[in-house]
Design brief:
The chain is 28% helix and 30% strand. The protein has six helices and seven strands. A seven-stranded antiparallel β-sheet has the order 2-1-5-6-7-4-3. This is Pyridoxamine 5'-phosphate oxidase.
C-alpha cells in the first residue's frame, strides 16, 4: 500500500524539492546492501519517488527481472539448482546478461520454486530505500521499485529531474525506477 504524503507538512515537501544528493539502497544476491548516490524526485500526490538511470546499471539488474523475479532470486535459485557461475560467483556483478546467458537452467529453477517478487493482491516491485540528509534534517523513503522503460514514463521522470536538479544529458539507454512509497522515516 502506497503512503499518502499529503499530510507530511510543508517542511517535508520543501525538503524533497531542495537540491540534495540522495542514496538508493538495493540488496545484492548475497544479501548485502548496494548503496549508490542518485538524484531522486518525489510526486507526493501519487506516493511515488523516481530515479533515472541507464538500463544496464547494477541497480536496474538488482530490481528488474523476468516475470517479476529479481536478478538476485534467479541467481540464488540457479545456484541452489546446481548451476555453476565460476570461481568468482560471490563477486557476481548483478548484470542481467550474466544470468540470461544461463536461461534454460535458470528458468527451470524459477519454475521449480514459483517465487516471484510480489504475491497476488500486493503491489509489484522490489523493496528499496532512498535517503537524503542535510545536517540534522533527514528523510528516508522505503518502497517497492519497478523499472519503467516506456517513453512517457521516462520523459516524465526526466522532466521532474530537470526541475529539481538540472537537465540530464541525452541517454537512449535511460530507464526510470519508480518507487511506490510504503514507509517514511526521518526528522521531517
Amino acid at each position: 500500500m502506497t503512503v499518502d504524503l499529503s499530510g507530511r507538512g510543508a517542511a517535508f515537501l520543501e525538503f524533497w524539492r531542495e537540491r540534495h544528493l540522495c542514496s538508493l539502497t538495493t540488496v545484492r544476491p548475497d544479501g548485502t546492501a548496494h548503496v549508490v548516490p542518485v538524484g531522486v524526485t518525489l510526486e507526493p500526490a501519487a506516493g511515488l519517488a523516481r530515479v533515472i538511470t541507464f538500463r544496464r546499471s547494477r541497480k536496474v539488474a538488482l530490481i528488474k527481472g523476468r516475470d517479476g523475479v529479481t536478478a538476485g532470486e534467479r541467481f540464488t535459485e540457479a545456484r541452489s539448482a546446481g548451476l555453476s557461475f565460476g570461481d568468482d560467483a560471490d563477486a557476481f556483478d548483478g548484470e542481467l546478461s550474466e544470468i540470461e546467458a544461463r536461461g534454460g537452467a535458470i528458468a527451470a529453477a524459477e519454475n521449480a520454486s514459483g517465487r516471484v517478487a510480489s504475491r497476488p493482491g500486493s503491489a509489484p516491485g522490489v523493496p528499496v530505500a532512498v535517503c537524503q540528509i542535510d545536517g540534522p534534517r533527514w528523510s528516508t523513503l522505503e518502497g517497492l521499485a519497478v523499472v519503467r522503460d516506456d517513453p512517457a514514463a521516462v520523459a516524465e521522470a526526466v522532466r521532474r529531474y530537470a526541475e529539481r536538479y538540472r537537465a540530464p544529458r541525452v541517454n537512449p539507454e535511460r530507464v526510470v525506477l519508480e518507487i511506490s512509497i510504503t514507509r517514511v522515516l526521518g526528522t521531517l
